[in-house]
Give the backbone structure.
Amino acid sequence: MAVSSAIQALVVCTLLSVTSVHAQRLLPRRLHFVAQSTAPNTHNFFFRGSLPHSSTGALDFDSLTSISKFVASRAGVVVPEDVYVVDYSLLTNLPFVGNSKENFVTQKYFDKFPWRGEQIVAPVLGSLTSPSLFPASVRSAMLAAPSWLLNSLPHAIDAFHTKLQEPRSKPTLFYVHCMAGCDRTGIFVGAYMMRHMGASIEDAWTHNVEACGRAPSAYTKNSLEWYCHYLQDVLGFSMQTCELNVSTS
């Protein structure tokens, strides 16, 4: 199972890298406020979007922070002027098929200006297969296996939530992104919404469509369905359904 999972991950990573080649920059229309920390004495903010680079390929820190503050204000949320940025990259560093160049550019910026923020690389990969292809008993066994998703989405979601709720020395803007801000970002944000914001899988999908301006990919749909079953079968969440009867891009 581990070998097939690795092959699947490589295929998906290649496909996502190819399909996102036209969105290698910060797209204001895809930058959205998701949530903010609720723990006492915390001022942390969660945003989603596309690669936060300019058309020249450099990290566009000023545009990222200014657009984020504007978007938050429209949701009735005030982001302080002076914020620390955590670039939460869902891009992989795999050679040839990954996005190591984009991650390197971001890391180089924060190496130069460490007081402005940092980068965390937490790769997310989609699933080629739908959980509906497997009998319930087989699906449950797969979900219980450590390699059910090569990137361990359950751990990634919980680790991010812990960071979002941690007290920090200054207000922090967590910016979660892939390349286009749609497919891998849709997996991560959709899973987070189901796990920590009480969203149904339909709610998560609708949010992704609205945030992206198009339907996410089949890999996103499959991954959200798998994660929904994880919440239901492993963690005991009450989910009305874990199947999405939707079109994908």
Summary: The first helix runs from residue 2 to 19.
